Amino acid sequence: MSLTDLRHRVVVFRADASTGGGAGHVVRCLSLAEEVAARGAEAVFVADLGDVDWLRAELRERELAVHAPPSGPEAFADQLTWLGAAAAVIDSYHLEPDLYRAAREVVPVLASYDRYSGPLPADVLVDQTFGAHRDPLPPGGAVVLRGPDYVLLRDRIRAARPALPPRARELGEPPRVLLVLGGTDALDVTGDLARIVLASCPSIRLSVIGRGVRAEEFDVGPDQAVEVVPPTPDLPRLMAEADLVVSAAGTTLGELCCVGAAVAALWVVDNQLPVYEHAVAAGCVHGLGSLTDVLGDPGAAGASVRELLENPERRSELAQTAWRLVDGHGRSRAVDALESLLVPVDRRTRTAGG
User: Fold this and answer.
1) Is 4 among the domain residues?
2) Domain for residue 112, yes or no?
């Protein structure tokens, strides 16, 4: 047994979530937490989960400890020591670089980054953005892991991945369409997008993921049905079973690729644009443009959705390309890199601890 593996160690995860800021930072950390737990480590969160109740429930279900974030870099370094951390994972757009530097004085640090955040002081840098592997390497001596080989995914997503490349079904009944804008809908546009889809598809079974809308507010035709589903652990199954998913180009996009979903994507906020552009270029999603494009010309967006539903060959092509692009093992590759940097455990301590 290696003296630098994660067994019996503590890994601390620093990330925050809110309706306005999204849930992606904590969701990525949750996938890594599941991986380190599978290797015998204890995952501990230092996080402000804000008003994202479904995410708080996800951590509670896994019996993961959550501590309040301290004020300032040095206080976080002290907290790492107090928690007995062997390593730290930090995922944020807003935490100051000094916090990363202070943490590195105590333990090896893995940090998620992208073009929006820029490279950060860390020992392992992970950028799961599609196309990131083509970017220039960031300066410094960090281990750099980039591109769809390093998409970080939770157990439920990985379990929903089909064993073989999926094929779209011929539609002999109303198509099943899923509309999801990630863990939160900060701009409150889910209802607008649902109406665009309904206006263009006279025969449809539409499932809408969200909290700010109600099924009763939509006018539906005789061969239409709308179901509004709050954020749910059952989402991976809904993704995998849908004939088409309309999605924002955020963290959810990697999940959709892993389960082999046929996706029509739009970019909603600026940091999603690089993801969107590379996903379209890779052929794993059909591009609808920006949120502004879709709301500005709803007829064109709705027509694109309808045409995809009428074309099973195109949906199969999208789904199979997506399935091949994201294999679901990104988190294990990332944790392998972090694990290799751990300070060795004293052999006597390891023997006594089992």
Assistant:
1) no
2) yes
Q: What is the pLDDT of residue 35?
A: 97
Distance separating alpha carbons of residues 5 and 342, to the nearest angstrom: 7
Share of the chain above pLDDT 70, in %: 95
Q: Name the residue range of residue 15's domain.
A: 10-152+328-353
Same domain, 188 and 99: no
Long-range contacts of 44-47 (CB under 8 A, 24+ apart): 44/10, 44/11, 44/12, 44/13, 44/83, 44/85, 45/12, 45/13, 45/14, 45/15, 46/12, 46/13, 46/14, 46/70, 46/76, 46/79, 47/13, 47/14, 47/15, 47/16, 47/17
If asked whether residues 225 and 272 sit together in one domain, one would say yes
Q: Are residues 59 and 130 in the same domain?
A: yes
Task: Say how many domains are in the chain.
Answer: 2
What are the beta bridge partners of residue 245? 178, 263
**147 and 171 part of one domain:** no
CA distance 291 to 265: 10
Span 116-151, pLDDT tens digits: 777 789 999 999 988 888 888 888 889 999 999 999
Cα gap 205→309, rounded to integer Å: 12
